[in-house]
């Protein structure tokens, strides 16, 4: 009769150990792949939401100072959307206020005072107001331009980069100053204020604060401020 043979205990233990190592490696690779996919999806969601918010902010601010009365031969220095409490203002580094002629009636209406501000961990857009001097003035709506349940906005800043063209040197070429401050002009000077706003936006995922993103944007205001000192 043929003698039957099998595995020894040591051989079985070695085989089990090798099997466990293979299974552990497979599970580790699977978990790593799932985590990588999850991180990619989270990052994509954060990028999409922040970029959408930045696009909305940039495109709306670019309209600041639009005046329906800007026709051929019109005096741009009388544009009511660049004068006094209707002009661009930033009472806080995290808030910008401005106006533009949405209905084209040439008058600054109460529902044409716009703005954006950081409110806690979200961003709100102003729908109405009476001045550009106070970030608490007017209606900022009940909605958020970013879903605060998913995205936490940790920083929103607006800074100016203004330039000024004035005719104080005429008939020589126009001088190019850093700002249109009264100290750099004399009474009677006609000046054009070229306005640029720099924006920085930072946010993170509520579900995973380690996933963060910072965006920067630049807005060249289409409607320059023209005035006589």
List the helices and strands and how they pair.
Blueprint lengths: L8 H53 L27 E4 L2 E5 L13 E7 L2 E5 L24 E10 L2 E4 L8 E3 L12 E5 L1 E10 L6 E9 L4 E4 L1
Write structural notes for this entry.
By secondary structure, the protein is α+β, with helices and mostly antiparallel strands. The chain has one domain. It has one helix at 9-61, and strands at 89-92, 95-99, 113-119, 122-126, 151-160, 163-166, 175-177, 190-194, 196-205, 212-220, 225-228. Strands 1-2-3-4 form a 4-stranded antiparallel beta sheet, with no helix packed on it. A 4-stranded antiparallel beta sheet has the order 7-6-8-11, with no helix packed on it. A 3-stranded antiparallel beta sheet has the order 5-9-10, with helices on one face. The longest helix has 53 residues, at 9-61. The N and C termini lie far apart (119 Å).
Please give the order of strands in the largest beta sheet: 1-2-3-4
- Strand content bin: 25-35%
Assign a percent range to the helix content.
Answer: 10-25%
Measured on Cα atoms, how large is the radius of gyration?
30 Å
N-to-C series of helices and strands: HEEEEEEEEEEE
